[in-house]
Amino acid sequence: MSMTWADVRFMLERTRGLIRRGLASLRTRGLAATWARVRRQFARHPRLPHASLYRPAEAPFAPFAVPASDAPRVSIVVPVYNQAAHTLGCLRALAEHPPSVACEIIVVDDGSTDETRDWMTSIGGLRYHVRAGNGGFIAACNDGAALARGDYLVFLNNDTFPQPGWLEALLDTFGTRPDTGLVGAQLVYPDGRLQEAGGVVFDDGSAWNYGRFESPEDPRYASLREVDYCSGAAIMVSTALFRDLGGFDARYAPAYYEDTDLAFAVRARGLRVLYQPAARVVHLEGITAGTDTGSGIKAYQIRNRGLFARKWAEALIGQPAAGTLPSPSTLAHGQRQVLVVDAETPRPRHDSASLRMANLMRLLVGEGAHVVFLPADLRVAGEDTAALRQLGVESWHAPFAASVASWMRAHGHRFDVVLLSRHYVAAELLPLVRRFAPQARIVFDTVDLHFLREKRGAEMAGDDALRRSAERTRDRELALMCRADTTLVVSPVERDMLAALLPATTQVEVLSNLHELAGNGAPFAQRRDLVFVGGFRHPPNADAMLWFGREIFPRIRARLPDVRLHCIGAEPPTEVRALQEIPGVTVHGHVPDLAPYMDGVRVAIAPLRFGAGVKGKVNLSMAHGQPVVATPCAVEGMHLMDGHDVLVAEGADAFADAVVRLYGDASLWHRLSTNGRENIRKHFSLDAARNAVRRIFF
Question: Are the CB atoms for 627 and 526 separated by under 8 Å?
């Protein structure tokens, strides 16, 4: 790919930004931590491995058993007509990787004349039903549905190999998306190429298997999303809904378009039809019916298209024109399309900024936007990337995005709004967005005011070099605010501060931390100890922990000799790890699941001596009903009142006194717990942010 001026300009701006941040990191983090960040930044992106797909070994028939339950949650209906060897492979796949969900498997034999009957009657746990005569795919499926005892129906072709976890992924979709009516699997060919990522229906009733022959890992096809229909080779629907709709419409007998018709009927009930990429199923397409639409049963595909087009003529008016090449842009037509760019993929279990960003994208999706996420480092982030995709976010990464500039050139025209998170990301991307997405409104998300945090750190350290660096950061941040259409800050304090520094025409909005209220956890009497949560790539957290561990905790321990301190956060530096030499201190590092510490520890601490923005550690504890002792800096701009929903203390003695007081006073503890949760509901919940999100992005 040839280098363009846009690529060069982006690379120059990025190089300048990396040098600035590298020097600042050297001053604040030291050589070892800075070098680790450099290596992470410039690591080569590994190529995606070829798809590793499970397939049962071929072997002569021998009796075996399939998963079975007398009280199934899911009924798997497998219609068959001859092709006994393929049916055997499908059932072996289900037996060798049994779902964790209680299920039953119903094979409906539509008049087979091969070994099907002999083999099926020898398989333990299988419900085998033989139809009186051959009636076709639709009749067989409807018979199977009539026999089903589960809450949910799965229709599964016999020429498939479901991959481990497929059924759980389908079922979980109904739990995470309560308005789901039907969900379909990702279908792949045995060679690992994508067969279908949901289907597209055009205005003349013709259909398209979206993503055919592409990579199943391509970001265009790797996200949970709403689709026109899903192939009946592997779909799940509630049993009650399927029966209420009358099953598959017999007008399409013997087969074809019944799955498309069902999807349209589900949508007509106000429910969603979703494609679930986490449910992967290998499909040997065409084994039963072939692929020639000019003869045999496949010819019904042409006839039934006309039946379908007449039945759903009104619904087809809004579909893409026949001949249109489906793309993410065309499929999201009519939705607000929002691009979010951050330095890296959010890791909600690691830091509060990531949690805020992930919940913002969740909120945007819930409001009906089509959200696309691009990490500036272009790295795939494993389960965190997968989590975004399960929210319905189209999440990109290398090698599918070769460079930020080339990606923006190809996709910029799609977007109504572009959110650029953090000042160094905005500095690099803003020129690209103005060039390749001139129609888009640019929202600059500060996350927190970096210059304010740097200034306070410099003042505490008495370092003139850091103070001058903070002034340069301030100039860059303010310039970006003037160039963006809207700037986001996390507190009214920061908004009011900027009012004195920016032209009156600059639009600044408050969009604070976003949290979901958790359960209450254990009662006061069953809780023990103290907890601090904060990622140590953030210098204020390291300073806070060192101050608390060295100067405050010994004072507390002298009065509460059995109390322990749990220090939680990714990448603790050597000095913080050394705090474990202090009796009662445990430095855990990153903890994947914080709930036991939020629900079982009695008091949270936030002893920050400098920083900016709204402190996620305080929000997190309060969302769990865990009271907090904090410094004034830690509660800035959070609508909190000392003694009402938090205890605020500044010096080492005062902080120790506040912790000891709260630790032993059940009445005070309950008051802070209740009022802290109310503070989250009122100021930091997704509902509290909804109006601001609508105003900013819609």
Answer: no
pLDDT tens track for 191-233: 999 999 999 999 999 999 999 999 999 999 999 999 999 999 9
Whole-angstrom Cα distance, residue 12 to residue 26?
21
Greatest pairwise CA separation for the chain in angstroms? 90
Classify each residue of 536-574 as buried b or exposed e, where b means 16 or more C-beta atoms within 10 Å of its C-beta: bbbbbbbbbbbbbbeebbebbbeebeebbbbbbbbbbbe
User: How far is Cα of residue 539 from the mean position of the Cα atoms in its chain?
Assistant: 27
Cα–Cα distances (Å) from 225 to 18, 398, 461, in that order, read 36, 21, 50
Q: On the CB side of 358, how many CA atoms lie within 13 Å of its CA?
A: 22
Structure confidence by residue, pLDDT tens digits, 469-512:
989 999 999 999 999 999 999 999 999 999 999 999 999 999 99
Question: 373 by DSSP, 3-state: which?
Answer: strand
| Segment (H or E) for 258 | helix 258-268
pLDDT reading at 292 higher than 60: no
CB distance 194 to 215 below 8 Å: yes
- The share of the chain scoring above pLDDT 90, in percent, equals 80
**Among all chains, which residue has been given the structure tokens 């001859």?**
82
**CA Rg, the chain, in Å?**
29
Q: How far is residue 651 CA from its own chain's centroid?
A: 41
pTM, two decimals, is 0.87
- Spell out the residues 6+ positions from residue 598 whose beta carbon is closer than 8 angstroms to its own: 518, 521, 531, 620, 621, 624, 626
User: 341-359, pLDDT tens digit by residue?
Assistant: 999 999 998 888 999 999 9
